Amino acid sequence: KSKKDIYLKNLDNYWTIEEKWDIIVPDDYPTIQQAVDIAGPEVGYRIFVKAGIYKENIVIKTDGIILHGENRSITIIDGNFKKDVVSLTSKYCAVSNFTLINSGNGFSGISLIQTSGNIFRDNRVIKNYNGISISVYSHSNNITNNNISDNYANGIIITDICSGNEIQQNIISNNSKNGIYFDEVTSSPGTVGTFT
Question: Residue 17 — pLDDT band, cuts 50, 70, 90?
């Protein structure tokens, strides 16, 4: 199988171009969830998603997955108003360059649950119930350079004994309740960006 000659590697919270993708959606697997489920030490962890609309609710349980869209404006994961659009219970993953839209009522564009060391950057998170949810002892996650707008409740909600999550250089606007809502957070994250 022919693979892209690049992938994105995290280096001091910035992306550098290096080596190859392991899995390309839809060339290798027709859905993102299939690619995420097959990823691992034998196949590889680096997943590139070509532009398109993917009506899925992605659950990532494997540590170390890199999930990268071709173009965030036209690489769209549509939750079809069911559950979280992307849910992570894994560690040290990266999700970048997508539009996440249409979570279920009470759910989020992306949900981080009892996890740490993940990077979520360069995404559009729009028209969900909550944009991003960080909960249940999640810590040391990085939320950078996202557009988190027009969600029906909160842009970002952080609850249930979370600490040390970095939120920086995001545009958080036109969310119906709060830009960022904190509840039972043991230490405040760094928050740098535009909030309207």
Answer: very low
- pLDDT band at residue 186, thresholds of 50, 70 and 90? low
Nearest to 85 by CA among 61, 102, 60: 102
pTM: predicted TM-score of the whole model, two decimal places: 0.86
Contact 56, 32 (CB under 8 A): yes
For 37, phi and psi rounded to 5 degrees? Answer: -70, -35
Q: Report which of 135, 185, 141, 196 is spatially closest to residue 167, judged by C-alpha positions.
A: 141
Amino acid at 116: S
Residues 6+ apart with CB under 8 A from 75: 49, 50, 51, 52, 69, 97, 98, 99
Q: What is the DSSP string of 95-144?
A: EES-EEE-PPTT-EEEEEES-BS-EEES-EEESSSEEEEEESS-BS-EEE
- Cβ atoms of 143 and 117 within 8 Å: the answer is no
- Find tokens 């998170």 and name the residue: 125
- In whole angstroms, what is the distance from residue 66 CA to residue 110 CA? 15
